[in-house]
Each structure stands twice: as structure tokens, then as C-alpha cells.
């Protein structure tokens, strides 16, 4: 077990004492009058939440060990000097580590070192040492994924703060707001924000519904910041619609004309009327009970942040159509921030014209969320909208072409073969949840979806005007908000190329940015045992939204990466790509520094039985690809690396290739070859509902990656695909003749991977990818001219810089 903490920010001795007094753990003159042991006993008694009766506290102390042979109360009675071993034996128990299970009671310091817990060691402990070490202990994460102060808070340690006047809140501890806001008294309200568009052609400006959950104190002259999640899923989904709309992928690739152009997307009406204001209200008239919530937002809510959810245009109780990543969808979410910042109108309901302002908001907003949610956070940030101070974009798309297409090919996100922009629009068009409302826009929506299907162009897979409108990378220079990027290195849904493009662009700007790369797929990481992610976010947002001078930008690492070899290990770096670039030539079946010679070929066709089996279960195809002896792929393998080697950056494959048809596609996979126990594909559940987010409030499931029980012989670490007719750009179609050798160069997904000593790097070249591409099962012979084939990997390094 290893615990990694990056949110503990530097404080002065004076700050530490002020904060301990603020939370009623330390009182004046105690540092000068109490012995070290008495100070420790006093602090322990004050964090005991079961009872404030001395006899109950003594009973609790009697059940804690101070030494292998002495209960804590007995040790205190003996008045023996405090030592490092005694203090940290007590600390481990307070942090919920189990004696004789998690650590040896005769050697607690070894456990402390192994786990990576922050410590203060002293040859002779003073009262001052006890106070400083206890402050650090309160900020230390325990076995169950929480800092001690948060664990105590969940038990009611700070319940008294609920009664504090609004002007005394929030309370900050180590630069972060504490959970001192009563969730039982949250204000829940609904407003309807007016946009500058009419996407359902009804002649009226679209209204967007927003659901707000904010502290009671925000009605008592405490201006609070907002954490806003833009989620098109928030008001419900049409799963059956999505299934019916899913496209058939078992179709052949075809030759593309060089002058083919897909039809453009239809423009929306610019002639519409705004609602007339008939009055003003200080309070909303509509409320809600529950809404689909992100647990990180629940964590932040009791720490004083107002939480806002909006599903945007084309969703239940809002106007408009679902446009899947378009500028209009971005603007509908931007409108929410403009209202919160005081620059846009909203109404208490859809029809009365009663205007309402966000007078409770301090005008500062952050956006959070994963996948589509994080995508819209990125999109809104590229508008440079005033009031948006920070975004935490997790597994976010930066170009929708890279989500549904690749290098002139239709390419599905992992696990969703046949999905496309029109399918996602159908799935999230939750206006269907209000039947009469749906009937009023049904015909308009059907027409729009049909036009979308044509404009997105599954026929060619080319980059076109439709995708260009959904490419946020054009406007990355407009970002003013601080950006925290979180992405899974094994995410095959929103692939890492999306975050790499955003990250690379921000390195040339003045925008504050942080990057966190984990070993998961398409997941959240705020409930990991090994990382204090929620506290990192709380520290960062305290700086960006509350204006706390808490050294957040200096405290949090620039690049934080979860190691793929050692469990529960997170390393800090200055950059993503670094180190020496290595170029491997394809030489026979090897990756070497010597150029290869000759022609190698493979055939993409399978028996009908095998084809149907693999279409039904693409994972079986993936396993067969690794074992293939040259029938439908070619394999090239390096010599084993002598020491652990970091691969950091974007691998590039260059091929000289020919197809027996006048069309074709080539795919490549980069593989770590070598026997060993690797991390589980998904995080393992440690404790269901075991992570308490506040006192009498929500919970989350504690999770973590573990080593697999059995060793495996390989792991795919990157892949890429290209249409041979798009060998220059995804927007440009080149002619191709049968058996014509052409040179293609394409990127694989970016990586940050530790190749263990003794392992080999492998490249597999093939055509149809049953997990991602169209699957035509055609008789196509591909030839590779090895003299023009190579793999380039930047970032080969042996260090952690």
C-alpha cells in the first residue's frame, strides 16, 4: 500500500497554530504550559467524537497502543518520553491502519516509510513538535482514502461550524475550505437562462434549464463561487433510440473520389425574439429534489461551493435541438457562466418573464466533469468567457473528428462500434421525456438529424466542415481559465491524443495548466486510495475561485503520472514528452537500427465463420492478432531493453505500402511484450460507500488499481489507423491504384509507459480493426516494402525529469 499526497501546502508555524485554534483543537497558552505528552493527550481527547466525557475518552485511549506492550493511557500514566515510534504508532491507528494486519507493531516507522506518509521526526520531542506533527497528521491520508481532518469532519467534528455566521465562512485548513456548510439546509433551485440562438426554429431564443444547489449562507450575504458541470446526460437519455440509430459497421471500405464533398450542415435561424421581462424576483420559484451528480461536486458542495448542473439545448425542460459538440451547444453552456457572472438574463420559469439574477454568486466559476462533460468544459474555455476561472477537464474531447474518425476513416470510440454524432444526438435528446414538448419539435428534430447524418459523412470518413466546427483546437489560444487536464493512458473511448493536443498547445501560453495521467480507461479518479485528488482540486479551486493565497500553483505538480509498473505509485514530471528519440527500422521480423529489405505481405480476408465470430466478439480478434503468424498481420519486435525505460510522447509509424485494391486502410498497434503481473484493467472496489464526503452527507466507493493475480505476456499501449487515400491529411483525398506503393506516415496514440527491463517493444501492422474500424472482410492483399518502414518513439529516457 502506498499513499501519494500532493495537496499539502506549506504553512508557517503561526498559520498552523491559528488554524488549530480556529477548529478548537488548540487553545492559547497551551503550547507554553503543557508538556509534550500532555499536549498529545489533549489533542487526542478533542478529536474523540464518541463522547466528551473523560471516562469514555480514557476508555478509547485504553484501546489504542502507544508501544507494543502499553495501551496509550497506561503509557501516559508512566510519563515516559514521546518518541518517533510512539507518535507514529498512534498515528497509524488514527489513520485506520490495522495493527498486525497492515503493519508490525514493533516497527511502525517501516510502515510509515513504505506507505509514504508525511512525517516529522525528532530526537527529543517538544510541545512545539507535537503541535506541528499533529497538524501534519490532520492533513495526512489514511487507509480509507481520506485525510484525518476530513475523516473527523465526517464524524461530526465540525458540526458546530454549521451555526457560524456567514461572514465567518468558509473556514480554511492548510489552504483548503473545510466541510462547514450544512447539507441539510442547501438551497435547491431552478432557473431558465436565455441564449442568443434559436436551434428549434420556433422564433424564440432558446432557454436552458440550470439546477442549482448552494449553501444557505449564500442567502446571508456570503457570495460563493460555482462549480458548474455541463452534462447533456443530466436530464435523461434515450438508450433505445441510440441502439436503433447505431450504424452497421460490417461493410466494406470503398474507393473515394478526389473531388467528393460532403453536404454542409444547415445553419440555424438568426431571426428570433427574446422574452419580454415582466418583473424581477430575488428567489427562484421552482426547485428539485435530486439530480445526477458527480461525487467530486458532492465533496465540494459542503465546502461552500455552489453546484450547478445544466444539460444544454435539446434536453428536457430546455429548448433547442441536440447538436453534438457544435458551436451552438458550446454557447448554450457559455450562457450559464455569463448569467452566473452577471452578464446574461435568466428567468424563474419558462413563460412568465420574471427575471432573476445570481446575486449569491461571487462571479467566479469552474467547470468539472468527464467525457462529454469535460469536453464541454474545454469547449467553453476556448470562448474566453468572463467568469470562467478554471476547468477540470477529465477524459475530454478536443476535436470530435478524433473521437469518431481518424485519418480519413470512420473509427469508433472503444466499446461503441457504430456510434456516431447523430447517434449521440439521439441518445441525449431528452426533450422526449416531456411527450407534448417532444411532439411540438419532432418533425424539426427529425429533419435536423437527417441533415446531420449527411454532413458528418460516414461515406468517406474525411475531415470536413462538420468536423471543423467541432474542432476546439482552433480556439485554444483564447483560453484564459486555468486548466487541469485528467486523462487515462488506456482510454480507448476518448483517446489520449485529445488531451495531448490540448496540453501541447498550453505549453506555449501563459495559461496555468496541470496534467494528470492515470492508468485507467474512461474513469473518474476522485475516489482512488493512493491519491489525494479531491484535496488537490479543493486546494486549486480555493485559489482560483475563493482567491486564497495558498501556493496552489506551486504546490501541485505540473505533470503527474500514475506508474504502470508499480501499484499505487504516482510520479511528478516537468513535461510529457522528454528524452531521446529512437527510430526503429523494420528488418525482417525485427525492430532494429538497420534498414530492412524485401517485401512482406498479409491478407485481410477471413473465413466466414471466423469473421462472424470476431464481429460478435472483437476481443477474440484482438487476442488472435497477437498470436497471428503472418496471415492477416505482420509483427516486428525489438531486442529486450536492459533497464526500465520510459516511453514518453507520440509514436509515429512510417510505411511504404500497397493494396491489391484501389483503396485500403492500415492499422498499427504498439505492444509491450514480456511476462509479468500488470495492473488490473479497471480499478478494484475496496470499500463500497466507504468514502464519506461530509457529515450526514453523500458517500463514494473507494477504489484502486491492483496487480493482476496472474502474469500476462503483453499489453497494447498505443494504436493508430489511416486510409491510404488520406496519406497527406484527413481532409485531402489522394488517388490510389491497385498495387501502387505509397508512403504513409501516421501517429499512434501518445504514451507515457514504463517498459520493464527484459521486455520488448513490438509493432503489429494490419488492416481491419474489429474493435474500431469498418469490417468489410474483403480479399485484399497488403504489401510492405521494408526499406520504407520505421517506428519513431520520442521520449526514451531512464529518468523522471
Automatic annotation (TrEMBL):
Annotated InterPro entries: AB_hydrolase_fold, Galactose-bd-like_sf, Pept_S15_Xpro, PepX_N_dom, PepX_N_dom_sf, Xaa-Pro-like_dom, Xaa-Pro_dipept_C, Xaa-Pro_dipeptidyl-ppase/CocE
Top-tier EC class: hydrolase
Start and end residues of each X-Prolyl dipeptidyl aminopeptidase PepX N-terminal domain: 1-157
Pfam families reported in the protein's UniProt record: Peptidase_S15, PepX_C, PepX_N
Reaction(s) the record says it catalyses: Hydrolyzes Xaa-Pro-|- bonds to release unblocked, N-terminal dipeptides from substrates including Ala-Pro-|-p-nitroanilide and (sequentially) Tyr-Pro-|-Phe-Pro-|-Gly-Pro-|-Ile
Domain Xaa-Pro dipeptidyl-peptidase C-terminal: 538-792
GO MF annotations in UniProt: aminopeptidase activity; dipeptidyl-peptidase activity; serine-type peptidase activity
Keyword field: Aminopeptidase, Hydrolase, Protease, Serine protease
E.C. number(s) listed in UniProt: 3.4.14.11
GO biological process: proteolysis
Function of the molecule: Removes N-terminal dipeptides sequentially from polypeptides having unsubstituted N-termini provided that the penultimate residue is proline.
Xref: PANTHER family: COCE_NOND FAMILY, PUTATIVE (AFU_ORTHOLOGUE AFUA_7G00600)-RELATED (PTHR43056:SF10), PEPTIDASE S9 PROLYL OLIGOPEPTIDASE (PTHR43056)
Family: Belongs to the peptidase S15 family.
Subunit and interaction comment: Homodimer.
Name of this protein: Xaa-Pro dipeptidyl-peptidase
Organism: Limosilactobacillus rudii
Amino acid at each position: 500500500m502506498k499513499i501519494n499526497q500532493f495537496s499539502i501546502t506549506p504553512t508557517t508555524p503561526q498559520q498552523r497554530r491559528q488554524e488549530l485554534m480556529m477548529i478548537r483543537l488548540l487553545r492559547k497558552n497551551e503550547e507554553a504550559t503543557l508538556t509534550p505528552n500532555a499536549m498529545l493527550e489533549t489533542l487526542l481527547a478533542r478529536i474523540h467524537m464518541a463522547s466528551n466525557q473523560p471516562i469514555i475518552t480514557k476508555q478509547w485511549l485504553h484501546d489504542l497502543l502507544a508501544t507494543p506492550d502499553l495501551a496509550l493511557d497506561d503509557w501516559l500514566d508512566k510519563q515516559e518520553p514521546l518518541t518517533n515510534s510512539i507518535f507514529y504508532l498512534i498515528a497509524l491507528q488514527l489513520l485506520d491502519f490495522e495493527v498486525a494486519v497492515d503493519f508490525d507493531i514493533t516497527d511502525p516507522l517501516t510502515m510509515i516509510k513504505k506507505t509514504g506518509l508525511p512525517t516529522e521526526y525528532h530526537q527529543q520531542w517538544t510541545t512545539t513538535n507535537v503541535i506541528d506533527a499533529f497538524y501534519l497528521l490532520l492533513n495526512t491520508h489514511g487507509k480509507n482514502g481520506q485525510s484525518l481532518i476530513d475523516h473527523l469532519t465526517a464524524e461530526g467534528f465540525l458540526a458546530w461550524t454549521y451555526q457560524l455566521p456567514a461572514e465567518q465562512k468558509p473556514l480554511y485548513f492548510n489552504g483548503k475550505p473545510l466541510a462547514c456548510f450544512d447539507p441539510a439546509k442547501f438551497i435547491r433551485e431552478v432557473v431558465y437562462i436565455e441564449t442568443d440562438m434559436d436551434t428549434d426554429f420556433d422564433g424564440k431564443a432558446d432557454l436552458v434549464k440550470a439546477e442549482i444547489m448552494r449553501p444557505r449562507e449564500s442567502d446571508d450575504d456570503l457570495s460563493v463561487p460555482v462549480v458548474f458541470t455541463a452534462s447533456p446526460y443530466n436530464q435523461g437519455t434515450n438508450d433505445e433510440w441510440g441502439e436503433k440509430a447505431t450504424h452497421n459497421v460490417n461493410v466494406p471500405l470503398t474507393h473515394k473520389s478526389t473531388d467528393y464533398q460532403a453536404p454542409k450542415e444547415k445553419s440555424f435561424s438568426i431571426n428570433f425574439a427574446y422574452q419580454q421581462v415582466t418583473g424581477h424576483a430575488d428567489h427562484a420559484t421552482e426547485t428539485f429534489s435530486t439530480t445526477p451528480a458527480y461525487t467530486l461536486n458532492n465533496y465540494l458542495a459542503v465546502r461552500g461551493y455552489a453546484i450547478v448542473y445544466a444539460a444544454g439545448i435539446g434536453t428536457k425542460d430546455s429548448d433547442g435541438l441536440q447538436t453534438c459538440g457544435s458551436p451552438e451547444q458550446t454557447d448554450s453552456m457559455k450562457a450559464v457562466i455569463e448569467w452566473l457572472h452577471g452578464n446574461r438574463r435568466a428567468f424563474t420559469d419558462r413563460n412568465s418573464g420574471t427575471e432573476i439574477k445570481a446575486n449569491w454568486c461571487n462571479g467566479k466559476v469552474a467547470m468539472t466533469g468527464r467525457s462529454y462533460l469535460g469536453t464541454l468544459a474545454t469547449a467553453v474555455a476556448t470562448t474566453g468567457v468572463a467568469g470562467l476561472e478554471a476547468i477540470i477537464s477529465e477524459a475530454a474531447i478536443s476535436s470530435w473528428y478524433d473521437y469518431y474518425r481518424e485519418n480519413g476513416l470512420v473509427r469508433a470510440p472503444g466499446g461503441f462500434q457504430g456510434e456516431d454524432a447523430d447517434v449521440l444526438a439521439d441518445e441525449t435528446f431528452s426533450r422526449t421525456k416531456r411527450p407534448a414538448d417532444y411532439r411540438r419539435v419532432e418533425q424539426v428534430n427529425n429533419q435536423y438529424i437527417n441533415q446531420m447524418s449527411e454532413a458528418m459523412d460516414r461515406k468517406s470518413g474525411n475531415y470536413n466542415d462538420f468536423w471543423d466546427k467541432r474542432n476546439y483546437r482552433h480556439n485554444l489560444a483564447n483560453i484564459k481559465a486555468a486548466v487541469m487536464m485528467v486523462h487515462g493512458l488506456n482510454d480507448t473511448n476518448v483517446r489520449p491524443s485529445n488531451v495531448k493536443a490540448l496540453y501541447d498547445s498550453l505549453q506555449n501560453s501563459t495559461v496555468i495548466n496541470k496534467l494528470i495521467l492515470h492508468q485507467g480507461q474512461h474513469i473518474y479518479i476522485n475516489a482512488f486510495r493512493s491519491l489525494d485528488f479531491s484535496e488537490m482540486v479543493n486546494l486549486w479551486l480555493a485559489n482560483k475561485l475563493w482567491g486564497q493565497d495558498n501556493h496552489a500553483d506551486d504546490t501541485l505538480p505540473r505533470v503527474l503520472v500514475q506508474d504502470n509498473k508499480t501499484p499505487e505509485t504516482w510520479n511528478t514530471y516537468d513535461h510529457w514528452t522528454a528524452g531521446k528519440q529512437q527510430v526503429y527500422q523494420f528488418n525482417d521480423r525485427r525492430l532494429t537500427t538497420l534498414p530492412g529489405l524485401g517485401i512482406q505481405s498479409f491478407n485481410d480476408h477471413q473465413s466466414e465463420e471466423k469473421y462472424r465470430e470476431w464481429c460478435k466478439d472483437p476481443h477474440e480478434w484482438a487476442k488472435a492478432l497477437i498470436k497471428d503468424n503472418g496471415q492477416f498481420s505482420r509483427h516486428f519486435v525489438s531486442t529486450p531493453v536492459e533497464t526500465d525505460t520510459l516511453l514518453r510522447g507520440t509514436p509515429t509509424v512510417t510505411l511504404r505500402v500497397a493494396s491489391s485494391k484501389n483503396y485500403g486502410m492500415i492499422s498499427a498497434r504498439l505492444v509491450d511484450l514480456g511476462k509479468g503481473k500488470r495492473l488490473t484493467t479497471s480499478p478494484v472496489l475496496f470499500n463500497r460507500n466507504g468514502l464519506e464526503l461530509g457529515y450526514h452527507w453523500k458517500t463514494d466507493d473507494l477504489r484502486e488499481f491492483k496487480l493482476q493475480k496472474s502474469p500476462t505476456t503483453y499489453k497494447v499501449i498505443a494504436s493508430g489507423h489511416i486510409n491510404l487515400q488520406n496519406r497527406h491529411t484527413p481532409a485531402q483525398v489522394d488517388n490510389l491504384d491497385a498495387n501502387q506503393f505509397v508512403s504513409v506516415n501516421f501517429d499512434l496514440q501518445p504514451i507515457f509507459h514504463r517498459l520493464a527491463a527484459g521486455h520488448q517493444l513490438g509493432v503489429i501492422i494490419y488492416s481491419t480493426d474489429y474493435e474500431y474500424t469498418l469490417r468489410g472482410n474483403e480479399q485484399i492483399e497488403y504489401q510492405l516494402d521494408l526499406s520504407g518502414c520505421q517506428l519513431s518513439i520520442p521520449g526514451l529516457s531512464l529518468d523522471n525529469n
